[in-house]
Amino acid sequence: MKNEKAIKKMFAKHAKALTFIIGNQKGGVGKTTNTYLIAYTLAKWGIKTLVADLDPQSNSTKTLMLTKSQNTDTVNTVNKTLMRGVQEKDLTDLPVKILDDLYLLPSYIDFEDFPKYLYKNTKTDYEETHLLEPLFEPLKKDYDVIILDVPPLSIEVTRNAVIFSDYVVISLQTHDDSLSGAEEYVKTLVRLKGQYDLPVEVLGFLPMLHDRRGAVDQLVIDSAKEEFGDDLVFNTIVPQMARIKRFPINGITNTDRFDKKVLNKYEEVTDEFLQRLLDFES
To answer: What mean pLDDT is predicted for residues 183-212?
Structure first.
């Protein structure tokens, strides 16, 4: 980690966690992979991190619970899901310790009921968009970073997440649908930012190669730079790596050179993530 002293000082000056969305309006573009691997790396560097799984597919939950099982002999159980916490208006007893400095706020398929619950229990646009904010506020004092894994195509969850987030990283898999999804996501951010005078900022667009040898990949990266600016596109690019597909099956492991190749790449990603954050916070 570069500039370690400055980064630790940056987190120390905040009384509550800096909160990030890993987003895109399109599904299947690496949001969840980026969420848990950036969080895992931050935790390994001593930055206390909470992954909040806001996706009813609960892929972050499954991968991180498997990661926990790789590192403990205890039986892995989730006593209370996110949707249950929302219904009880209390999320403080949800976080599950995965590793030292890495915690998970677990989701489950029942979070599909969030939109129905939202519309049944709110009366105004403001209440609709601010239902989750007071529930997450008590969690912020316990962490340095909270990363939100937000589902695609759920405007209800997206709007609620943006309200209490500080930064957004847009996951950009290098095919045209992903770029279109990124464009739509930015439009949503701009609209909410203006409507509620929010401080949320785009930290950057993180490219993930769809085809290592494809000409379209570079075209999408160039188009993103042209549309959003060179400085907003991460210099670090995540290549295709077969081992990434194993982590949702086995959990995050660090046992052979293929694991290490992925984890070393995400050290580069996370280092740039922190340097960009340091620039914004300075």
So the answer is: 85
Helices (H), the chain: 4-12, 31-44, 59-70, 82-88, 114-120, 125-129, 133-136, 155-163, 176-196, 215-228, 247-250, 257-281
Task: Name which of 186, 189, 190 is nearest 178 in CA terms.
Answer: 186
- State the pTM of this model: 0.92
- Average pLDDT on 18-33 reads 82
Q: CA separation (Å) from 248 to 33, 96, 227?
A: 9, 18, 33
pLDDT given for residue 224 in this prediction: 83
Task: Give dist(CA 32, CA 96) in Å, integer.
Answer: 18
Indicate whether 210 pLDDT > 80.
no
Phi, psi (rounded to 5 degrees) for 169: -110, 125
Distance of CA 127 to the CA centre of its chain: 24
Contact 65, 104 (CB under 8 A): yes
Q: What is the pLDDT of residue 213?
A: 63
Q: Which of 208, 124, 125, 200 is nearest to 161 (CA)?
A: 200
| CATH, range 4-281 | 3.40.50.300
